[in-house]
Amino acid sequence: MSTKAEQMEEIETAVPNVARVPAQNNVAFAWFAGSLASCGAVTFTNPFEVVKTRLQLQGELAKTTPNMVRTYHNVAQAFWVIGKNEGLRGLQKGLGPGYMYQIMLNGTRLGFYEPAKNMLYRLFTGQASNTQKSIMPLNVAAGGLCGVAGAALGSPFFLVKTRIQSASSFAAVGFQHNYKGAVDGLRRIWREGGLRGLYRGMDAAMMRAGAGSSVQLATYDHFKSYISRNLAHRGLTDNSAYTHFLASMGTGFFVCLVMNPFDVVSTRMYNQKAASGGAHGGALYKNPLQCFYKTVTTEGFFSLYKGFLAHYLRLGPHTILMFVFVEQIKALGARYL
């Protein structure tokens, strides 16, 4: 009786033209790995997302004055105030819809980044991306496309997450929607605005994710390649967790630098009250460009960088954890699948 290995060899010999794709290189596996890794990462970084949201909404469309009363002064103080008055549950507000958003956004981004990159390389160079030197503009374009697609899919979850995170009985900032939870929020949004209500602010989220994703995926690729190429003699190979950690650290800063203005606009577009009388748009901003304009002219240019440190403290560790997790999941896939 032949062994299992011999049977597999007979099958491969009998069907020589069937290409076997390793599980870790499969789009479905990459989507699963990206979803699982990002959910793991957001579990640890969600408290900084709560802090960032409140810092970005504080003082919305109000001119800064020396006597202005601010509940939240900086990241550490805001973290302390929220934790003291609302407990761990307050710091983890919006975690449920946050998981769903991560699955939609990062499952799509990480699952389809390589196929999108290959498509662009073949379109512009006639060759697959893994057969030649990395071309940064094409990597940026692939990351941007995947980010926009993921943001569109996850927009309703980001919407309800933002509104839940901004709510506080102790120190209200921005409009207070007071949802009982994610399901209650989605139900109320649908009842008040239908499908259009669920996707209000999606254009701002697509700009945000497109800008962040184009930088994140392309710079991570570049940093990882650079480190493994120049520091392989010190053990920092392409598959090393230390390489993934260092590449993620560099990536997180640049992503935050590019993305923060879009993040402020996205947060405000999502959290604003709906326009009265059933009119299209929100009560404060009709579209992202108007939000940019009104924010800068009222609060100054640097208002677009409100919550920057909280954003990096959320995004930096999230980027590190997500990429380290996803690389380890892929390694397990290569070993066992």
Automatic annotation (TrEMBL):
<dbReference type="InterPro" id="IPR023395">
    <property type="entry name" value="MCP_dom_sf"/>
</dbReference>
<keyword id="KW-0472">Membrane</keyword>
<feature type="repeat" description="Solcar">
    <location>
        <begin position="25"/>
        <end position="119"/>
    </location>
</feature>
<keyword id="KW-0496">Mitochondrion</keyword>
<keyword id="KW-0677">Repeat</keyword>
<comment type="similarity">
    <text>Belongs to the mitochondrial carrier (TC 2.A.29) family.</text>
</comment>
<feature type="repeat" description="Solcar">
    <location>
        <begin position="239"/>
        <end position="332"/>
    </location>
</feature>
<keyword id="KW-0812">Transmembrane</keyword>
<protein>
    <submittedName>
        <fullName>Mitochondrial oxaloacetate carrier protein</fullName>
    </submittedName>
</protein>
<dbReference type="GO" id="GO:0005743">
    <property type="term" value="C:mitochondrial inner membrane"/>
</dbReference>
<feature type="repeat" description="Solcar">
    <location>
        <begin position="134"/>
        <end position="226"/>
    </location>
</feature>
<keyword id="KW-0813">Transport</keyword>
<keyword id="KW-1133">Transmembrane helix</keyword>
<keyword id="KW-0999">Mitochondrion inner membrane</keyword>
<dbReference type="InterPro" id="IPR018108">
    <property type="entry name" value="MCP_transmembrane"/>
</dbReference>
<dbReference type="Pfam" id="PF00153">
    <property type="entry name" value="Mito_carr"/>
</dbReference>
<dbReference type="InterPro" id="IPR051508">
    <property type="entry name" value="Mito_Carrier_Antiporter"/>
</dbReference>
